[in-house]
Write a structure and sequence with these properties.
By secondary structure, this protein is α+β, with helices and mostly antiparallel strands. The chain is about 30% helix and about 25% strand. The strands form three sheets. The protein has a seven-stranded mixed barrel. It has a two-stranded antiparallel sheet with strand order 3-4. It starts with a strand and ends with a helix.
Length: about 290
């Protein structure tokens, strides 16, 4: 597995030399763009609209636009020095928190950590301490010229770094248009919706989820490569109708779920008080 970063993780006075490896990979199928007439790949050139000429990499500088068409030029040497200064610092765990305290909207990308030379014992110590306490570490680190806020946690037997967004990088949910305010929901509709959720509840098995589009695209590519006959289409799911009656849609969904999963065993929910009222409502709906 390719090493993309080497450094030190520290908590208190404990330092752990580690290597970092990408934990995920992009499986998207990349398609090239060709000139339709001669089937030659298209080139993308960097040009200056003012000079009307192609610009080479050595003639490009980086700058920050602080106002319209007003720039602060930043030399490569200045940027490298600043980057080096941050990279030389140990990745220090600032705080320890509970994983469930962090909303998934903050999570960005995952990396595996492996111990570097001489770091196995301290690595194992941190892993066991995190596992036994059920805590995760919050740290800062430099990755690809950006200071990242990160979570350090245990996944199976490995320590994992999860980069997370800073609070000011998460847009305010109040800016989302057309989010309805609290509306009164009919009890019958709510009970049926809960029953539908229970019927579709199962254990999470990531292996059963496949990228159907990527599979179909690769099959198409292979067929064309082998000059085989291509048949695209077949059965497709009907487009959903506009919901006219919410209760009817819920009930029909529940009926289909029961038919498709007659043997499904929902995860047991904790027993709550006043179950008699809910049971009565449930009998009334399904009768």
């Amino acid at each position: 597995m390719h090493t993309m970063w080497k450094g030190t993780i520290s908590f208190g006075l404990v330092n752990i030399p580690v290597k970092m490896h990408a934990a995920t990979e992009n499986k998207d199928i990349k398609l090239r763009q060709l000139h339709k007439k001669c089937k030659t790949p298209i080139k993308y050139e960097k040009t200056c609209p003012n000079c009307e000429e192609e610009v080479k990499n050595e003639d490009i500088v980086k700058a920050y636009e602080y106002a319209a068409n007003k720039f602060i030029i930043l030399d490569d040497e200045e940027l490298e020095a600043l980057k080096k200064e941050q990279e030389d610092k140990a990745v220090e765990i600032i705080d320890f928190v509970q994983l469930q305290e962090i909303d998934p909207i903050y999570f960005e990308k995952s990396y595996y950590l492996s111990p570097n030379e001489g770091g196995s014992k301290a690595y194992a110590l941190l892993r066991e301490a995190l596992t036994d306490t059920g805590k995760i570490g919050i740290a800062k680190m430099m990755i690809r010229s950006k200071e990242q806020l990160a979570v350090i946690r245990v996944y199976k037997d490995a320590i994992v770094v999860e980069t997370i967004h800073y609070p000011d990088e998460v847009r305010n949910v109040k800016d989302v248009p057309n989010v309805p305010n609290k509306e009164s929901v009919m009890k019958k509709e709510l009970d049926t919706a809960k029953m539908l959720i229970d019927q579709l509840t199962t254990e999470f098995e990531p292996e059963k989820y496949k990228d159907d589009y990527r599979t179909a695209l690769m099959e198409l590519i292979e067929a064309k490569k082998n000059n085989e006959e291509i048949e695209i289409g077949g059965e497709s799911k009907a487009k959903p109708d506009n919901v006219i009656n919410l209760m009817d849609a819920l009930q029909e969904s529940l009926n289909r779920a029961k038919k498709d999963n007659p043997k499904s065993k929902p995860k047991k929910q904790p027993v709550k008080k006043k179950t008699a009222t809910k049971t009565t409502a449930k009998k009334k709906i399904t009768s």
